[in-house]
Amino acid sequence: MNQHNITNESLGLALVLVVVALLISKKEKLGLEKDIIWSVARAVVQLIIVGYVLKYIFEVNNGWLTVLMVLFICVNAALNAKKRSRNIDNGFIISFIAITVGTSLTLSVLILTGSIEFLPMQVIPISGMIAGNAMVAVGLCYSNLNQRFADNQQKILEMLSLGATSKMASGTIIRDSIRSAMIPTVDAAKTVGLVSLPGMMSGLIFAGIDPVKAIKYQIMVTFMLLATASLSTIIAGYLAYKRFYNDRVQLKVQK
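== Iron export ABC transporter permease subunit FetB ==
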């Protein structure tokens, strides 16, 4: 049995699914046609480029090149997370610190414990999963911070007027924002195997790996995603809340 039977023709036929989405969007007047076409075109181009880059990196098997690729992933994740940091100055720097620290710490633990080896074909895909999940969590944390600071301006001002520090006045908002940002990752962990069969597990099974061994890898992925998401959102939340105050610890006007 040929386990790798995806041809250009089969990819072309799979494109029909995108056409169906376009037709539905047009019929229901959703206005998503341009976004769908742009996202699909961008995904195809990006994946083709990344495919050739990874093929080169895997063949070279250079440690420094691997580290640079991990940093490249973290930079792009930070740039995307920054898009949600509307009222947060230096959103990119905060995002980069949070995502890089979370990703680096998780990778270090996985490598030191022998769960994975420091090889490009193992480190880079794992880094992509970790940083991507952290990116979503940090972005959600920013959205929640912006919304909660806007909704609770009066309450914060009252606490500040009574002598509370910015951290005390923001404590509940920070905790609630971090908690909300973690919900997708926590829910995904609750339903893994029952609702969804995640990418790594499915990929290993497609490749002919024993399902029990594939499950072990997926359990490892679940652990690392939870750890990275929690660490990254905590770092981002506690660095970002200060940006809602000026140098005199006065709350900035939220829009």
